[in-house]
Structure formats: C-alpha cells, structure tokens
Design goal:
It is built from two helices and no strands. It has helices at 2-30, 32-47. It starts with a helix and ends with a helix. The protein is mainly α and 48 residues long.
Length: 48
Amino acid sequence: DDFSLQVDPLTVKESVTVAPRTTTVVTSANSSSSSSSSSSTTTTTINQ
C-alpha cells in the first residue's frame, strides 16, 4: 500500500504535465499567434 501511494502522486503529476503540453500543441496549431505565449507556458511547466 505504501508503495502504491508513492507511485500515485508521480503518475498524477506526469499526467498533469502532459495534458497542458498536448493542449498547447493543439492551441498552437489552431492559432499561430498564441504559439509564442503557449511555448512560454510549456517551458515553464517543464522547468518546474
């Protein structure tokens, strides 16, 4: 149980990190003007 609890937050954190990146890609494809600000947001997420 303890091991599962340790893995859980990591999995959730990865999912939360991947989701915004996927959204950023879609946003960039739909609006090139938003890609600049979206790239900054993606970089910040990766750095954190």
